[in-house]
Amino acid sequence: MTDQEIIKGLIDRDNKITQQFFFQNCRPILYGLIDKYFPQEKDYDAYVGEIYLHLIDKDAKRLKQFKGQSSLVFWLQIVIENYFLDKIKRSKKIETAPDDSLLRKAKDKLTDISADEAKMDVCAILDYIDNESYRVVIQKHLIEGMDFDELAKITGKSKDNLYNIKCRAIKALKKVARIASSHGDALCAVYCEQFILHCFGIHKSISELKEIATSRGWLNEEGALVDCLGNTALHYGLHADKFTSATLQDIIESMAAGGQVLAAVDGGELIGDPVDESLEDVLGGGIVDHCVVILSIDKDEDKIALYDPAFGVVPLTVTIPHFLEAWADSRNYCVMVSK
Asked: Is this structure's pTM higher than 0.85?
């Protein structure tokens, strides 16, 4: 389904499209931004409903403003961030909103990538990005803090063009960071468990969950044991059924019943070259180094949307065969969480 078809479905109040895109696929964005701007608040569902009403207010005026210049998910993220900034300003919790906020959002994303998730020096991974325009924007705008007015002068590009380049540069930067973090990020399980808890109305910080997992031996410096996935959900009173040799249909049925599903995967196979990854499996065996939460499965479109902590709040969409290849390395291990 194209972004324009999704927009039309949202405007027409199509229940299936609204539920799948806004209330399932966009959950990571919504929860992530609520955590970012209102960390003390616990009524997440109220904020999600508020954002939905904001989008469809005045005959869906805001949704109709989407012109396809960026991905719908990225556009929605900016709309929500601006709404939250306006909300904070109106409530006078802060005196002023950041200047030129639309063009400065990437700084927080960069911090998340380099410090919390990928744990890489951003300057070092510039060497892995071939596109010169991306490199300039990352270096000058994201790292050195140069504003778009100044950057426009030295590059000869318009601010709108630079903004679009920045969006694509961030995506490229995240992909490079993701490749490294598949081997170095020890907290993917904690982030996935936090997301699942959010979905059931249990809102805990990463530091709280990390402390619990570490103290009970579920997590160490190298990461979480596959057999321990779901233990945090059990700790907070949820049901967590653990399966090996599960099927895609098992996941679909669990989600249809209101459950959340966490799957252990080979992180490289989710975004890597299928031929290279298959060769890696033959030579070195399957690698289980990552986990994801299933957001939605669309058999007609042959796509599956995932909450992948390495990509932050933006859902990762891959083909179903691509996911199945990555999942197979764990012998189709998953945890089905329910109330």
From this structure: no
